[in-house]
Amino acid sequence: MSTHDYTRRDFLKAMSLSAASVAVPRALFARTALAQERPNVILVITDDQGYGDLGCHGNSIIKTPNLDELHSQSTRLTKFHVDPTCSPTRSSLMTGRYSSRTGVWHTIMGRSLLRRDEVTIADVFSASGYRTAIFGKWHLGDNYPFRPQDRGFDEVLVHGGGAVGNAPDFWGNDYFDDTYWHNGKPKKFKGYCTDVWFDEAIRFMERNKERPFFVYLTTNAPHGPYNVAEKYSKPYTDKGVPERQARFYGMITNIDENMGRLMERMRALGLEENTILIFMTDNGTSAGDRAGMRGQKGSEYDGGHRVPFFIRWPAQLSGGRDVPRITAHIDVLPSLIDLCGLKTPEEVEFDGTSLAPLLKGNDKVWPDRTLLVHSQRIEHPEKWRKCAVMTDRWRLINGRGLYDMIADPGQKKNVADEHPAVVEKLRKAYEDWWADISGRFDEYCEIILGSEKETPSRLTTHDWHAREVPWDQYHIRRGPRANGFWAVGVARGGKYEFALRRWPAEVDRPINGAIPGGKAISATKARLKIGDVDVSQPVPKDASAVTFRVKLRAGKTRLQTWFTDENGESRGAYYVYVKRLP
């Protein structure tokens, strides 16, 4: 069986579990002594915080006392690498596989959707009797079958898209007193976003303290926009730090405060000793300290993808120790399977490897490795685009530049001409890797319409396949003349209703109406095209939506919409709500 044919259904079948629903039936797992001895796992990942954005890594400006304490207690992977941007990193964390192999090589354009046949870390923990939860940022799909509740998570509290305020997010969210998606339903919360994520994670931990749990605590901070209470940013502006960076650092200070609350609650509940606590970030810094590295978020140089990784497990791992071997996001899932004694079928082919020997100090026979990352951020990946081939010593950048990381950690001097044999060897490694991961680059990840698991489906511009994608609510307000198509799959043939909107349903403003800070449009005709259906109708005055009812056949297809004015200028419907009719 090939990896491409291996689906979540196969995984659950291999575990002798029912695949009739997304969630794994918990009744199939007895509360054995072994289950009780298994460690809990809390994986904390922050957004756009770089290696140098921590006091314990030499930043003399930022204050992170709780993370500094965790650093002192942890085994630290000091050469740990991720992808240069967020969705790709998260897909590798979820699967233990290279991001582009999983269908994720961008953060928008339908290329941030994790292929439905990938087995996730939550699937694996669920199959071993763990309760699973996510709090914060998902960014691997906002529609069925890509949502976290479709991918093995029991408890889900997330914002939409890749950041608070993106097009899929609940309209008007600004980090304070926002509405988030709780198990698929919008729910209003009081407080700052990061505080909410930690509050709910702590409550989940308290409810499940008598059984093993896996918590994926994934903050949207310190990703922009850099919104934070002044009490966190003012200490930095008072020191002369520029406003933008002061707010960025203030967001990290708030994260640090919440990490302190989390660790204290773990101690109070008696969970500290047998809980694996991981802290890491998803890519290089966006507004902070590069720690002497070249590049930042999005870069193929180390500043774009070398990040902190602390792991603390008092029951099994000695703290205060650095591991200076090259490691990566693809190693996290295989390592946790090993450390926690989880069930996993042999048919899942990981690109990563278990780091358990390194973490336990058995590194004398650790092999040399070659790892690869790249930053595509386009519709179809291009060979040699913004890539790094990495070993403990070398970096081959974009197939041409070679850097000796021992002599030149800042990657200032290209020594390719001095080491042609190394260049040739690393280029071959890339060629072999590309041939291996590129077999499905021409495929789309279809959003499924007409499933009972999501009704209605709420489609947004974030997932357009297009040259210009209005992925943020700021773009939507401006009403850009942009368009694209959604790759969709019709679950069942029959009659479907499509509601085309300029504003999301929670705003409920006229298509041609403006909102404060927004721009009005003057659409007179609406058009819907899906498969062999192509229909149009006038836009009624003051209508908030134009509704079409059409008959569809089951199968994969494309969906595209238009709002056109009297001058023939058009734009797509930024929001489309789809449901199957009885």
Can you put this structure into words, describing what you see?
The protein has 582 residues and is α+β, with helices and mostly antiparallel strands. The protein folds into three domains: 3-21 and 40-359, Alkaline Phosphatase, subunit A, CATH 3.40.720; 371-440, Arylsulfatase, C-terminal domain; 447-580, Jelly Rolls (Sandwich), CATH 2.60.120. The protein has helices at residues 8-14, 33-37, 65-73, 86-95, 121-127, 193-207, 230-237, 243-268, 302-305, 332-340, 356-359, 420-437, 473-478; strands at residues 40-46, 75-81, 131-136, 155-158, 179-182, 185-188, 213-218, 275-281, 309-312, 321-328, 371-374, 387-390, 394-397, 401-404, 447-449, 457-460, 486-490, 494-501, 525-530, 533-538, 546-552, 555-564, 570-571, 575-580. Strands 6-5-4-3-7-1-8-9-2-10 form a ten-stranded mixed sheet, with helices on both faces. Strands 15, 17, 19, 20, 22 and 23 form a six-stranded mixed sheet that branches. Helix 6 runs parallel beside helix 8. The longest helix has 26 residues, at 243-268. Residues 1-9 and 11-35 have low confidence and may be disordered.
